[in-house]
Amino acid sequence: IYLSPTPHIPYHTSILMGEAWVYELTSGHPNRICHNLGVSLDAFESLHWILKQNSISQSHNGISIEEQLDIFLY
Question: What are phi and psi of 58, to 5 degrees?
Answer without folding.
Answer: -160, 145
